[in-house]
Design goal:
Blueprint: E1 4-9, H1 16-31, E2 35-40, H2 64-73, E3 77-81, H3 82-87, E4 99-102, H4 104-111, E5 117-119
Parallel strand pairs: 1-2, 1-5, 2-3, 3-4
Length: 120
């Protein structure tokens, strides 16, 4: 069984429910001692920017910023899709804790030896 887990997230403000649930699952994975990555692509890359998630709070869940902070503090990593990030003209100097802008090869490398994943 793989010691890794990937959460693929393509949403942010366009679907705050998906964004929140993705980080709930990511926190569960990292708390289960899995080497966990959240891959932020398409609109999900906006969550990589400090302050962006501050006002997102789905009823019944912890605030998204809290979920993201807890994930990073537990050692979780966020890979931010480089082309998606550049297309949206985001600022690499404003990345949240645990986030790194990466190319597709980094994601492939992480998943290459077998890695369960979920997508939101």
């Amino acid at each position: 069984m793989s010691g890794k887990f990937l959460v693929n997230l393509t949403s942010s403000l366009d679907n705050t429910d998906k964004a929140t649930v993705a980080f709930v699952v990511a926190n569960a994975a990292v708390a289960s001692d899995k080497d966990t990555v959240v891959f932020l692509s398409i609109e999900g890359v906006r969550l990589s920017q400090k302050g962006f998630a501050d006002s997102i709070h789905e009823e019944g869940f912890a605030p998204l910023k809290e979920l993201m902070d807890n994930f990073a503090a537990a050692g979780g990593k966020m890979y931010v899709c480089s082309p998606c990030f550049k297309k949206r003209k985001l600022d690499e100097d404003k990345l949240v804790a645990g986030a790194a802008v990466v190319g597709g090869a980094k994601l492939v490398e992480f998943m290459s030896d077998g890695c369960p994943s979920v997508s939101y």
